[in-house]
Write a structure and sequence with these properties.
It contains 18 helices and 20 strands. The chain is of the alpha/beta class. It has an eight-stranded parallel β-sheet with strand order 11-10-9-5-2-1-13-12. The protein is globular and about 75 Å long. The protein starts with a helix and ends with a strand. Bound molecules: alpha-D-glucopyranose. Alpha-D-glucopyranose (GLC) binds next to loops.
């Protein structure tokens, strides 16, 4: 009931907005009603990694009841949608990305009743819920795979990709997570190999089989019928395969996206999924990966294609690399601006994208893209928030980044839990790799850095669990935690809340035209966002030094809407200074 009235109010608010914009639309840039408005374009998505968010029963693993206990915190952020990483039954080879039953909840996380309460609690607070759908592969412990591997004539055999061993070895395929990088695993039970792009416990589903596709659509409808509001399709650009299995070029290991992504058939599957599922509900849909080119991305998301609502492109998030330049720079700011500007202009008129710089597959945002040294952590975290919340596209924000949580930087392999890091370590070990260099590199880039428990307060284990956490808590929880920041008006957390509100109050930040200024400035990212006569200027110093922006705009008459420094700025932007002005 409460959810419905929130929805009604929202509609009323939108229609008032649309009509008031109508009245003053004459000479304006573009009218709101030509924008093809959608709730998911205006959403701010908060990603929750359930395993690390909040443990309610002391087993050291986050769970659904834990999330429920934090719903008021989640609402206080102002975010409008939550994307939950997979919560289905799973043996957890890849923390839930290996699903053994798509219609049940992982034991560690709770029960279906807990899920129903969580969904209800979110809806009561006006928050939408987006589910992670992992159907490029299942777990090898899924009933389908158990049947499939049991005999060559089993009706489920064709649910997966098999290569009979009497044909010789199958053409090499690279596996992202395998200890030998080999995506074909020999199974003596039926003298055949099965395909797994990820770990051996994640066999790839055969999307050419209509039975597989229908099973997936039915499963998605099961969740849609429960009232979930969207789907994030995991690794879906890899779902279609060329099953003539041609030999692939020798750069496959380093450029696997190029050969595995967007293979013929993918668009047919998406169109079918859209017809069978998305078109029947008011749900958002987003795929991981956007192909190799703008054209690939447009083919996934353009209106009229009837495939997806949006996609994530990885060019931006992939930019920050393990420091390798003589100056230790993690990325070029000019390149960063170029990437985001190009993607924006390519999608200015059709299609929609997500904007993000971190997720559960990345190390921490402030460590990679900002500066987690004590004197710069707060300002740089706030600067990155200003960036993400002021770009065109739907912003996705990963839990813990609103506190400026940092990389834990494990210094020994035993501390890691992630299948990718552990198996790659084994690979390096058996292939004579430099293991100490590997540990240094992973301290910067391993995704376990982003998976340490959420830092709630300064009590034992950061208030995450009363038991032994499944992965170590970052020792800096005594100073970096939600309780401390909640009370501090100038904290990163409170800045995040303000910046989310600023976006929600300014449609120009969602839909407005983006114009890059001072393009070749190596330190400052400056741009304007304009809609219906409203013009906002965003100034971001991406460096630890003072810097000047040459925008040609006189700030004397501008109104500052937000800034990450408490004293007014002048011509020089201080380290990591960020500000938004109305011109
Ligand atoms: C996606 C997920 C990642 C997972 C992989 C295999 O990239 O984001 O966490 O390991 O797919 O499912």
């Amino acid at each position: 009931m409460q959810g419905k009235s929130v929805q009604l109010l929202y509609c009323l608010f939108l229609s008032t907005l649309i009509s008031s914009c109508h009245n003053s639309a004459e000479k304006k840039l573009s009218t709101v009603d030509t924008l093809n408005r959608k709730w998911w374009k205006e959403a701010v998505v908060y990603q929750i990694y359930p395993r690390s968010f909040k443990d309610s029963d002391g087993d050291g693993i986050g769970d659904l009841k834990g999330i429920i206990s934090k719903l008021d915190y989640i609402k206080s952020l102002g975010i409008t949608a939550v994307w939950l990483n997979p919560i289905y039954s799973s043996p957890n080879d890849d923390n839930g990305y290996d699903v053994s039953d798509y219609r049940n909840i992982m034991k560690d996380f709770g029960t279906m009743q807990d899920f129903d309460s969580l969904l209800k609690g979110m809806h009561e607070r006006g928050i939408k819920l987006v589910m992670d759908i992992v159907v490029n592969h299942s777990s090898d412990e899924h009933e389908w795979f158990k049947q499939s591997r049991s005999s060559r004539t089993n009706p489920y055999r064709n649910y997966y990709h098999w290569w009979n061993a009497e044909r010789g070895k199958p053409p090499y395929r690279y596996s992202l997570f395998d200890v030998n990088h080999d995506a074909w695993k020999y199974d003596s039970l039926t003298n055949a190999y099965y395909l797994h792009y990820f770990s051996r416990k994640q066999p790839d589903l055969n999307w050419e089989n209509p039975k597989v596709r229908n099973e997936v659509y039915d499963m998605m409808k099961f969740w849609a019928a429960k009232g979930v509001d969207g789907f994030r399709l995991d690794a879906f650009q890899f779902a279609a395969k060329d099953t003539t299995w041609p030999a692939l070029p020798s750069d496959l290991n380093t450029k696997f996206e190029k050969y595995y992504g967007m293979v013929n058939g993918l668009h047919d599957y998406l169109k079918e999924m859209n017809k069978e599922v998305f078109s029947k509900y008011d749900v958002m849909s987003v795929a991981e990966g956007a192909g190799q080119t703008f054209e690939d991305a447009h083919n996934l998301v353009d209106a009229g294609r009837n495939e997806l609502g949006m996609a994530y492109a990885f060019d931006g998030v992939n930019l920050a690399k393990y420091p390798s330049t003589p100056n230790g720079e993690k990325y070029s700011i000019i390149k960063f601006k170029e990437i985001f500007s190009k993607w924006d202009s390519a999608f200015a008129n059709n299609g929609w994208l997500s904007v993000f710089l971190s997720n559960h597959d990345q190390a921490r945002l402030v460590t990679r893209f900002g500066n987690d040294a004590p004197q710069f952590r707060e300002q740089s975290a706030k600067m990155l928030i200003t960036f993400l919340m002021s770009m065109r596209g739907t912003p996705y924000y990963y839990n813990g980044d609103e506190l400026g949580m940092t990389n834990i930087r494990f210094n020994k392999i035993e501390d890691y839990r992630d299948v990718q890091t552990l198996n790659e370590y084994q690979y390096q070990k058996t292939h004579g790799g430099n293991l100490s260099e590997f540990i240094i590199r992973k301290a910067f880039e391993s995704r376990d850095n982003g998976r340490t428990p959420f830092q709630w307060n300064d009590s034992i284990n950061a208030g995450f669990t009363t038991g032994k956490p499944w992965i170590n808590v970052n020792a800096n929880y005594t100073t970096i935690n939600a309780a401390v920041q909640d009370k501090d008006a100038n904290s990163i957390l409170n800045y995040f809340r303000k910046m989310v509100q600023l976006r929600k109050n300014n449609l120009a930040l969602v839909y407005g035209k983006y114009t890059l200024l001072d393009k070749n400035n190596p330190a400052v990212y400056a741009y304007t966002r304009e809609l219906n006569g409203k013009k906002l200027l965003v100034l971001l110093n991406f460096t630890a030094n003072n810097a000047t922006a040459n925008t040609g705009i006189n700030l004397l008459k501008a109104k500052q809407l937000i800034s990450n420094y408490s004293t007014a700025s002048n011509k020089v932007l201080r380290p990591y200074e960020a500000a938004v002005y109305e011109l």
